[in-house]
Write a structure and sequence with these properties.
Layout lengths: L16 H10 L3 E8 L2 E7 L5 E6 L6 E6 L2
Antiparallel strand pairs: 1-2, 2-3, 3-4
C-alpha cells in the first residue's frame, strides 16, 4: 500500500527533499535516496538498528508517518 497520506498541507508549505534527508540523518538514518511520492517524501535508508527501510515522512512537519523494513 504505497498510497499513504502523509499530509493535507499544500505543497507550498512542504519541506524540501533535502530538508527531509537532513531530518532523517538527524534521526540516525543513513539515507540512500529520497523522493516525493504522493503527499509523502519517501526515504530509502539504513535505520539506526542496521535494517534497510523505506520511511514515509510528512513533508509539512518532517515527522515519520510510516516505516517499512525491506528484506
Amino acid at each position: 500500500d504505497d498510497d499513504a497520506v502523509c499530509t493535507q498541507a499544500p505543497p507550498a508549505q512542504w519541506l524540501s527533499v533535502e530538508q527531509i534527508k537532513a531530518k532523517a540523518t538527524e534521526l540516525g538514518y543513513a539515507v540512500r535516496s529520497a523522493k516525493t511520492e504522493g503527499s509523502c517524501i519517501e526515504v530509502y535508508a539504513i535505520d539506526p538498528a542496521g535494517a534497510r527501510v523505506e520511511a514515509y515522512f510528512d513533508p509539512a512537519s518532517g515527522e515519520i508517518v510510516r516505516k517499512k523494513v525491506k528484506r
